[in-house]
Design a protein that fits this description.
By secondary structure, the protein is of the alpha/beta class. It contains eight helices and 20 strands. The protein has helices at about 50-55, 155-165, 180-195, 205-215, 230-240, 255-265, 305-320, 340-345; strands spanning about 1-5, 5, 10-15, 25-30, 40-50, 70, 75-80, 95, 110-115, 115-120, 130-135, 135-140, 175-180, 200-205, 220, 250, 270-275, 295-300, 330-335, 350-355. The strands form five sheets. Strands 5, 7, 8, 11, 12, 19 and 20 form a seven-stranded mixed β-sheet that branches. The chain has a six-stranded parallel β-sheet with strand order 15-14-13-16-17-18, sandwiched between helices. Helix 2 packs across helix 3 (about 180-195). Bound molecules: zinc ion (ZN). Zinc ion binds next to loops.
Amino acid sequence: MTASGQPVRTCRAAILQQSSAPLVVDEITLPESLAPGQVLVRITLSGVCGAQINEIDAVKGPDRFLPHLLGHEGYGEVMDVGPLVRSVAPGQWVVLHWMPGAGVQADPAGYRWRGQRLNAGWVTTLSEFTVISENRCTPVTTSVPLEYLPLLGCAATTAAGVIGRDAQVRLGESVVVLGTGGVGLLTVEAARASGAHPIIGVDRVAERLSAADAMGATATVLTSAAPPATEATEGRIRTALGGAPPDVVIETTGAREMIELACRLVAHGGRTVLVGVPRHDEPASVDTLPLHFDTIWTGSKGGGTQPQHDIPRLLRLAEAGLFRLTGLPVTRFPLAEVNDAIELVRTGLPGRAVVDPWAG
Ligand SMILES: [Zn+2]
């Protein structure tokens, strides 16, 4: 396996060794050769998504794959390809994504770390190099600044898919977005680009709401400290909407109280889309009566993204200024400071944290 003619045998990576513990940044050993459908990518930047925090916290239950690599949105250069790979070639720049796109679904790569097997999925991004499945990368050529390109792997495409596919937002519909972290802010922007009005951003962090204002929210609501979704919060949202219930509610936090609020808040005949993943041990409790009045509650799987179609479309919109991807605040961290990035995301860093594995 080579990069620019030089063999690549090891690289630095962030490793989840133990649930609810900091990641370990260390040298790992890459597979000796690429299997059919595998692609070697030199990572330029990787996003840090709520999904990685959920993995660290084991919100879906005990983690059977420890130790493992992680990260599922990135941008980089293809260095080498395995047999059967047809959709990308060495020298191409690619967005790395977790939803399957064009090409082969290869076996996940087998890495080694400290003499043991190190697990990885079809895509991981928090490392200098990565071996991924062909169908987890999509070639791009764009004038959009590169720090935004990892977001096409998850945050931006999820947001666009949630608004366009899952919620099917129509012109003039009112939209409430609960949680204005990275995905939430881009959901606000996707709602604006789709002609929704009004658009209400709701969060527990004031700085995130300022970013939501800049991204096109017509009003913002700061949630009460604890518990997050109190009656006061609900009242403020209703006031911001002039008393009418919203046509569409998008829930991005995964917090039980916010999921319950999302289902309670929506108009009869409206749509609630759950994007944030709930903790396995904190089930929501909701009154299902609205379901008898044509109300739809649904969960999103990555906005139903079809990367090979959606990534070029979104980049075209971004280049034309019609999807303001670059309005999102982006903060860079070196790989050695990945745990600081994760901690700041937890505490409410506005926008997106991206990790540069090559920064000192
Ligand atoms: Zn993600």
